[in-house]
Design brief:
The protein has 397 residues and is α/β, with parallel strands linked by helices. The protein has two domains: 239 residues, Type I PLP-dependent aspartate aminotransferase-like (Major domain) (Aspartate Aminotransferase, domain 2); 129 residues, Aspartate Aminotransferase, domain 1, CATH 3.90.1150. Helix content is 37%, strand content 13%. It contains 14 helices and 13 strands. The strands form three sheets. Strands 1-9-8-5-4-2-3 form a seven-stranded mixed sheet, sandwiched between helices. Strands 7-6-11 form a three-stranded antiparallel sheet, with no helix packed on it. Strands 10-12-13 form a three-stranded antiparallel sheet, with no helix packed on it. Helix 2 packs parallel to helix 9. The longest helix is centred in the last third of the chain and has 19 residues. The mean pLDDT is 95.
Length: 397
């Protein structure tokens, strides 16, 4: 076995394997070219079509495309009438976007520790954080593993709270036979370049309320009464009016051109990631790490992130050293996540101490995400496996 490159020797591959490598095919490329040639690049017919097929895929009544998952969360909170002084409960194991969306409404984020196995919000801890000011619960379906939505919805119903699902990792995920994003009042999705369906940047809000969908669509485009496509349709010019102070959160047809074909292949892409997941499980199980949980028959895992937990007690170096070593093997890796309770801004602003969220802290010190994309070749997957075995074997006690 080669000595790890941080001590000399040669990497397992010559070129860098990008973490979150996108699976872009000719259908997307041709759709983008068609969009450019059409002269309509902004919000138009392709956004409308993408909304329609996403709505049908999720089995919901309304879908509104926006320019990011962060925008989706922000708008869902605003439409839920969240205001300064309110509190919103979410998981300590999430990306900062979840917290920032809450903060931008003027409300206060309240975090709950996660479960060590699923890395999702621990429903048993939610009730402890509910106060007279609590208005919303935002469960985050971490890495594509669905949260226990029956329990969370029961808590929300008991206390009269709204539920906004953060489904950034979980387009394909299901819980007890029902697609995630359809349990709460809103489901919010991301189409960032590393996600399971990509538009480069982009997001979606789904809801069964026409009133809420219309309000989100208006807020996403300056607060206009009609979007630009409808104003310039073949029905004749229509004047718009500003009915509320909105945002510039709309998706472009250029982005939707990617999403239309990504969504057509969503289940095939899921099957490929499932296959890669199994290859990792079969190959890495004897190393000093814990494999991610796949769940049971009550869920459909989205297979968005393959997050291992290093057994640091059986290694001579810490997690960050392993990250550097794998990078020098030309394997792109990620960390999902350092818990939000560990970031200085939130600690100073809200008085959080990461020791109060022991499961999140424990995971944050050990977690490491390996490449998982339908765009990976068999060689890519084998290179990842070779590199992980090489590094962890070398640094094992």
């Amino acid at each position: 076995m080669d000595i790890p490159t941080i001590k000399g020797g040669f990497p397992v591959r010559d070129d860098m394997l990008i973490f979150g490598k996108p699976d872009i095919r000719d259908a997307e490329i041709q759709e983008v070219l068609s969009t450019l040639k059409s002269g309509w690049i902004g919000t138009g017919p392709k956004v409308a079509h993408f909304e329609e097929i996403f709505r049908d895929y999720k089995g919901t009544k309304h879908a509104v495309a926006v320019n990011s998952g962060s925008a989706a969360l922000h708008l869902a909170l605003l439409v839920s009438a969240i205001k300064p002084g309110d509190e919103v409960i979410t998981s300590s194991m999430t990306f900062c976007a979840t917290l920032n969306a809450i903060i931008h409404t003027g409300a206060t984020p309240v975090i709950v520790d996660c479960d060590r196995i699923t890395m999702n919000i621990d429903p048993g801890e939610i009730k402890k954080k509910i106060t007279m000011r609590t208005r919303v619960i935002i469960p985050v379906h971490f890495a594509g593993y669905p949260c226990k939505m029956d329990i969370i919805n029961n808590i929300a119903d008991e206390y009269g709270l709204k539920v906004i699902e953060d489904c950034a990792h979980a387009i394909e995920s299901e819980y007890q036979g029902k697609r995630v994003g359809t349990f709460g009042q809103f489901g919010c999705f991301s189409f960032y370049v590393t996600k399971n369906v990509i538009t480069g940047e982009g997001g979606m809000v789904i809801t069964n309320s026409r009133e809420h969908a219309d309000l989100i669509k208006s807020l996403a485009l300056h607060g206009m009464s009609k979007d630009a496509w409808k104003r310039f349709s073949d029905e004749g010019y229509k004047h718009y009016s500003i009915v509320r102070p909105g945002f510039k959160y709309n998706m472009m047809d250029l982005q939707a051109a990617l999403g239309i074909h990504q969504l057509k292949r969503v289940e095939c892409s899921w099957e490929r990631r499932k296959e890669i997941w199994k290859q990792y499980n079969d190959s890495l199980g004897t190393l000093p790490l814990r494999l991610p949980s796949e769940g049971n028959q009550s869920i459909k895992h989205g297979y968005h992130l393959y997050t291992v937990l290093l057994d640091v007690e059986r290694l001579t170096v810490n997690r960050d050293y392993i990250l550097d070593a794998l990078t020098k093997e030309n394997i792109g890796v990620g960390v999902h996540y350092l818990p939000v309770s560990s970031h200085k801004y939130y600690q100073n602003k809200y008085g959080w101490n990461e020791d109060d969220y022991p499961n999140s802290k424990w995971i944050g010190e050990r977690t490491l995400s390996l490449p998982l994309s339908s765009g990976l070749t068999d060689k890519d997957v084998n290179d990842v496996i070779r590199a992980v075995k090489k590094i962890l074997t070398y640094f094992a006690n």
